[in-house]
Amino acid sequence: MYEGGSPVTAMVEFDGGVLTAFTNCGGKPDCCRVHFSTDGKKLGEGEVRYEGASPVTAMTVYKGGVLTAFSNCEGKAGLHRIHWSKDGTKLGEGEVRFEQQLTGK
Predict the structure, then answer these.
(1) Gap between the Cα atoms of 30 and 25, Å rounded
(2) Domain-located, residue 96
(3) Structural domain tally of the chain?
(4) Is 43 exposed, middle or buried (0-12, 13-18, 19+ CB in 10 A)?
(5) pTM of the entire structure?
(6) What's the average pLDDT block by block, 10 residues per block, for the chain (105 residues)?
(7) Domain-located, residue 3
(8) 54 near 92, Cβ under 8 Å?
């Protein structure tokens, strides 16, 4: 289903297909993506539903949409968010349902 150099950080069944989150896309440490596969095949080649520098740490289907957890938001270490997408697209742009800034000591 997938063989590549980008680590998978999360997967969830959604809308008859699969959303799969990757880090280190194209060998770039600051490139993270979520692809949608309509049939559970070619998991790293489907439609891109998110691309950015913040790695996805978890995804879950909720009330017909997707909650997606991100770390290092806005390039800030320790800034974590959960975004809501009502239709499973634009996963990093939806309503912020949770945000926390952790500070080191």
Answers:
(1) 8
(2) yes
(3) 1
(4) buried
(5) 0.92
(6) 83 97 93 97 95 97 97 94 98 96 77
(7) no
(8) yes
